[in-house]
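User: Please look over both lines:
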Amino acid sequence: MHVFITGGTGLIGSAVLPELLGHGHTVLALARSDASARAVEAAGAEPLRGGLADLDVLRAGAGRADGVIHLAFGNDFSTAEALARSVAEESAAIATLGEALTGSDRPFVTVSGTPWVPGRASTEADPLPTDGPVGGRGVAVMGALGLAARGVRSSAVRLPRTVHNRGDGGFAGLLTGIARRTGVSGYPGDGSQRWPAVHALDAAVLFRLALEQAPAGSAWHAVDDEGDAVRDIAAVIGRRLGLPVEPVPEEAFGPLGAIFATDQPSSSAHTRDALGWKPTHPRLLEDLENIVKG
């Protein structure tokens, strides 16, 4: 299959790209800079110059492909306004890609976060939230899944709060960055809230399986760790960086503070059973041991 992928040089995309190539697919990858284009070529794929806001480029990429995997996101969490812009940009991109695939029966794999459900681990059957700081992502992905009724084999891989590799990535990576800046490995509340996690290389396998096998309109959970207590995550970060581990106000985490403070474990039992997905790489607390002081 010839696959068009956005976000192919990010933490997750850089794992998905070789996973696809290693299983006989060819890849056309969106590249917003010369450096990204060189990285795409070095990996053995073809770059398509443009950014997520270049909707004509996205249409062209989808038009050349047998299937699409969308991974790109602005990832500016500095302010509520910046986060809203990233969500709006992605929403327009998803709508454009979906429209380009309408009526073709080609696969379209989108990405979102796992939902949170009070009192239990979320499952693939739970709906995505459509309110809150990143609710717009839920709206966009649900719209993409709705394209199943319009001749698109759309599916959604739901990623946990931390997708990690070599101790970096996701919410745990954000905690590490904040700890480096502030001199404290902090966590909101009492730190008992749980975050699910997955290694990027395991997540990449699930994206490929969804591309190849997922029925139209289906959702899947790329979850290995069902939920690690945030204070345990902060404890490893603090030890690796030689910093104190302390509770800090929710507001210290900016627009993500409310999400950081939420208990949000998640299950992938259905995904494992239905697609045969079997994570094999280190779990989060083990992988965080790769954090280097300095």
Notes: The chain has a mean pLDDT of 95.
